[in-house]
Amino acid sequence: MNILIITGELASSLVKDASLKSDHNVKVHVVKTPIAAFLTPKKIIAELRTLPVKELKSQDMILTPGLIRKDVSPITEKIGIPTYKGSTDAADLDIVLEMVDKLDLSTKKSADKLIEEEQRKRALKYIADFENDQENIEKLLKKPENILVGDLPVGEDFPMRVLAEIANAPTLSPEELLKRAEYFVKSGANMVDIGMIAGENMASKIPAMVNLLKENLEVPVSIDTLQTEELLVAVDSGVDMVLSLDHGNYSEVLPELKKKKIPAVILPTDYKRGWVPETTLERVNSLMDLKEKCKGIDVIADPILDPLNSKSMVDSVIACRKFRDDVDEKCPIFFGVGNVTELLDVDSVGVNALLAGISMELGACILFTPEESGKTRGSVKELAVSSKMMFLSKMRGSIPKDLGINLLVFKDKRQGESIQELVDVPEIEAGSEYKFKQDPLGSFKISVEEGRIRVVHYQKMQATVAIYGQTAWELYHEIINRKLVSRIEHAAYLGQELQKAEDALKLGKNYMQDFPLFGKFMEY
């Protein structure tokens, strides 16, 4: 294929290097402008018309810089050669040229974005096809390590299921409870757990909570308590799974679980008499013993993942592996991820992904988490994505990289090539302050609430209008269109604050107007 690539002077060397790696016949035309992103379709059309007609007509395709903001279809219309956007970063152009025959290139989106979208589409289709293959699901459910929780297949052969806990559920109003549950399901939770309050018997509240969630959700509902009465009421109310049975309560609850065919998570403890296993071997043997006692129902074994530096997280992981290897008849395994993330002052994204990977290697099937602190907000979504990544990795027999799905939030996968622009102009070190003057058109109070950015305009201390939006772009355009700002320094300030608010909204961080969004953690 004959491909003509249009670029600017600064990126030309990178573009030429990429073209030499291609099997296609690639010609690079460098426009006399330093920055390729400054090119427009109109400028490119004018540039192309300076080329020899014969040379131009021999081209099968034209690729423009991916950073061009406008649609490049006018180039096709005026020049008569199919024209598309190349990659955003010149360093990725070799990948685009390698896949150019397979890509449905666009005049509006850069080619590297299309590659990402295609990989993601294929990854999600693979998972969806697996989840919808009823014949295969029925076959897999015949294995002891796979069970049904409600209508949901759970086990080692399926993607790990995310169980989101609504902590202290009895303290919430029905509206708050349902809102929290719906948020978790929207975040990707496969099951929702009603977290009860340790040391308090609130059995009377259980039927209404279970009924509310079962009527409004399409995912299984479980309950998290060790109190016998609460467990029995929950079973009678129709929960799909109970957390948890241990040596102190199983004998009273087990008959009802058998009648209703409800699975249970089992613990290696006896909280009724205050006994907790001390060693890895005690933990494993206790779980095996309780599993034997609970014959007649499906069980999910929870070896209890310990927080870092409490007893030993490593020992609890070893216990999980030993139980899986030594148990006579396999059963699903439970992994309490929230035990680690909630008790670790680190952003949850990477921690959740790593723990999901460890869980996958251990053969665990349920990833359990609440979202009780600011640092773990978004954990359900992170685990839902991590589960998909690890399932794809396992099924493809690959490391969890280049899967089409990722959890890259704060850093980019590849570091782009730095292109230094040499300009012969005065160089000034920024730092001088500009004396701010009050804008006669008024001021703004910016906040982030309920998934939106809220901007209230004030004039003479009185609110005049409240504007809502998801992005800085749509908000400052609305402000400009309404002629609510008149001074350039005020407009610059607004742009800065609105972008901070948008970043806070995306990242789940607290936003406070006039304060930095990120702490200086690297100085510690």
Tell me the span between the first and last alpha carbons: 55 Å
Uncertain parts: none
Shape: globular
Main sheet: strands, sense, barrel? 8 strands, parallel
Helix content: 25-40%
Measured by DSSP, the beta-strand proportion falls in 15-25%
Helical segment tally? 18
Helix- and strand-based class?
alpha/beta
Q: Give the strand order of the largest sheet, numbering strands 1, 2, ... along the chain.
A: 12-11-10-9-8-7-14-13
Q: Could you tell me the mean pLDDT?
A: 93
Q: If you compute it from the alpha carbons, what radius of gyration comes out, rounded to the nearest whole angstrom?
A: 29 Å
Number of strands: 17
Please describe what this structure looks like.
Helices cover 39% and strands 16% of the residues. It contains 18 helices and 17 strands. The strands form four sheets. The protein has an eight-stranded parallel sheet with strand order 12-11-10-9-8-7-14-13. The protein has a four-stranded parallel sheet with strand order 2-1-3-4. The mean pLDDT is 93.
Main attributes?
alpha/beta; four-stranded parallel sheet; globular; 524 residues; eight-stranded parallel sheet
Provide the fold topology.
Layout: E1 2-7, H1 12-20, E2 25-30, H2 41-48, H3 53-57, E3 61-64, H4 73-79, E4 83-85, H5 93-99, H6 111-131, H7 134-140, E5 146-149, E6 152-155, E7 161-166, H8 174-187, E8 191-195, H9 206-216, E9 221-224, H10 228-237, E10 241-245, H11 250-260, E11 264-266, H12 280-293, E12 299-301, H13 313-326, E13 334-335, H14 338-341, H15 348-362, E14 366-369, H16 379-396, E15 443-449, E16 452-459, E17 462-469, H17 472-481, H18 488-507
Parallel strand pairs: 1-2, 1-3, 3-4, 7-8, 7-14, 8-9, 9-10, 10-11, 11-12, 13-14
Antiparallel strand pairs: 5-6, 15-16, 16-17
Helix pairs in contact: 2-4, 8-9, 9-10, 10-11, 12-13, 15-16, 17-18
